[in-house]
Amino acid sequence: MVAVGDDVSVAEARRIALAAQGFAQARGRADLRRMRKAIRQAGVLQLDSVNVLCRSHYLPVFARVGNYPRATLDKLAWGADRELFEYFWAHKAALLPLTAYPLMRWRMRAAERQVWDDELSPDVTAPWSVVAGMRRLTAERPGYVGQVLEMITEKGPLTAGEASPDGVRRKRTDPDPDPSTGTMWNWQDAKIAIEYLFCAGRVTIAGRRHFERVYDLTERVLPADVLNAPEPSADEARRELVRIAARGLGVATLKELCGGSGQAHFPLPAATGREVIGELVEAGELIPIRVEGVKQQAYRWHEAKDTPIDAQALLSPFDPLIWNRDRTHHLFGFFYRISIYTPAPQRVHGYYVLPFLLGDQLVARVDLKADRRTSTLVVPTLTAEPGTPDFVEPLAAELHLMADWLNLDHIAIPAGGRLAAQLTDRIRVTSTPARTVTADAKR
After folding, report:
1. Looking at the predicted structure, is the pLDDT value of residue 40 above 60?
2. pLDDT, tens digit, for every residue of 380-395?
3. Residues with Cβ < 8 Å from 439, sequence gap 6 or more?
């Protein structure tokens, strides 16, 4: 049993973290109950537009549950009886359980008041494009946000492109105080206004149309019992958000729990984060410990356990287990950076690289692509971590499972190399007559 002030080995901390994220249980049946549990353990499901393999929010549930129907997650997120809602953790969009909605109201109110001066207070989880754009709109087009809200009220649900009151489009050459609002992302004024209303809780995401957000009034989308739930004070909400992060991480530093970076679960101002953690330590909910090789003070959630791990999963680059790259490095000895923004000649391991978790180790980097035209799961590159045990058989099984899940008929492995040849042979042995495997992934 870990006590106050105990030293914890990296291996112990790693097992605690994996168990907290739901990797201590065998997958079993991929039913709705298991899906709900996986979402709860993950804490949040980050949304991302990259679709070279699969939208990122589907992948953490697959890693924990296995071959579940993605349509079921769509219903949980955007169906009439939804159990999730879209909002921001840090400055990134995510799906969160509806139970977390009241905990976000203090941030919504701060956004509504535009409390983002003084170096962009971490109390506001608004993208920089909203902050810079609203500063300009407030000065240049007073009343414009109200016009957008009126359009949604009268005609919603609408996409951002459908919500422009006057149809005026700014050009990339127009003067712009911040490039992220007009040059980098080319956000139109209606997009800035509607995203501000979303941050402020006035509108929410009613659904997705070809993954484009569709907005409507929050009261027309979310259940009345959620909207009418008692609103906790800002202090109460902050404590509960740190609790959620602590349960999901198992063992973590202050920065990992609630630091100002986008790799924390729910960022807080530094002084506030220290205060909240101090309160949870005093209550016995967080236990101060030291993790081998980590200079910063760490904390263990009081119910977190060091549990044997026998996991097998391909992890999204945006999986909560590994989205904090520094934490991934010190827990797994795995230096990981996503390469989707890296020019092709400079990529080392591929474009959309998923770490392969086997047992309690990250043993390989698997670049994956879904070629929907040929119904093929493609593995353009495959890289083993130094000194890892043989993983060919479990990886072959995982690729079969993923191909089944994505309704892909074939698997293509890169030609050349002993590891690729072994994986190709193993997949051929275990393939059904309807599935082929090729050793040429030059697509």
Report:
1. yes
2. 999 999 998 899 999 9
3. 412, 413, 414, 415, 420, 421, 424
